[in-house]
Amino acid sequence: MTVQRHPDTVGGFRRGDEMLRVEGIAKTFEARGVRALDPVDFSVANGEFITVIGPSGCGKSTLLKIMAGLMPPTEGAVMLNGSPVTGPREDIGIMFQQATLLPWRTATENVILPIEIRNGSKVAKEQEGRANELLDSVELKEDFHGVYPHELSGGMAQRVAICRMLVTEPSVLLLDEPFGALDELTRDYMNEELQRICMERDATSFMVTHSIPEAVFLGDKVMVMSARPGRIAEVIDVDLPRPRTLDMTTREEFGQIVRRVRKQLDVGGMG
Predict the structure, then answer these.
(1) pTM of the predicted model, to two decimals?
(2) Number of structural domains, the chain?
(3) 114-150 confidence digits (pLDDT tens)
(4) Which of 13, 215, 221, 252 has the lowest tally of Cβ within 10 angstroms?
(5) Would you tell me how many other CB atoms lie within 10 Å of the CB of residue 134?
(6) What angle, 0 to 180 degrees and rounded to 10, lies between the N-to-C axes of helices 184-201 and 154-166?
(7) CA-to-CA dists, residue 17 to 21, 89, 196, 204, angstroms
(8) CATH assignment at residue 254
(9) Are the C-beta atoms of 195 and 170 separated by less than 8 Å?
(10) Which domain holds residue 133?
C-alpha cells in the first residue's frame, strides 16, 4: 500500500496540533435516571486516529453523538478548532454501523445528499463529479456510480457511506462501529481501506468499536472506557508503523497491545 502524506501540515494546521477537545463531558438521562457518562476529558490531535472501546452500555456511542453535536451534554463542552460544538456541523463527518443509504437514490446521488440538504439540489448537482471521484477512490468505478443500494454488497454500501461522509471535506471524522455488521473478511478489507483513506487525507478520526484487534489496527491510541457510568480507564499508545497490514496482526508486538487492552477491559467489567 502506497500512501503519500504531507510531512508538516494538514488543512492549514500543523500535524499534532490540538484539533478537537472534550472538556468535562458528562451525560445523565434524567427521565430514566441513568448516568451514562461521568466527566471525561481528552483531546484529539490534528491527523490523529483515536479508537475507543469499552463494555456495552458504557456510553461510547453517547459520547460520539455529543461530539457530533447530535446530543447535548449534561455537563461540559466539545471544542473543534477553538469553537464550541452545539449542533451538527459541516466540518464534522459522521458514519454509523448501517450505511443508511436512500434506496431510491443512486450511489452518486447518495454521496451528494449532505450537500443537497445544506445547499439545495442545484449546488449538489454541481458536485456530482466530486462525488464520482470519491467513489473511484474507494474502488467503486464508473459502472457503480449509477447503481442503487439493493445492487451493492454490504462492504460496497459502506464505501458509499464513507464517500458521503467525506464529500463535505470535514475536519473530523466520527465513526460509530461502521463495520460492525459486516462479515470478518469484509471487515478486515474495510479496515485497510479506512486506514488508507485516512492516511491519504491526514484525517482526524475518532472511532467507536467493540473489536479489540480493530481498535489496535486502526488507532494511534486506544481509549479504554469503564462500565457505566463511562469514564476513561486508560489511554494506550499503539506504537506500530503505518501503513499497517493484516500480517501485522499475527506479530507479537501487536498481540502485546491487544492483551493490554483486554486486561484493562477485564478490570473494567467487559469480561
Answers:
(1) 0.88
(2) 1
(3) 989 888 988 888 889 999 999 999 999 999 999 999 9
(4) 252
(5) 23
(6) 20
(7) 11, 21, 22, 11
(8) 3.40.50.300
(9) no
(10) 16-268
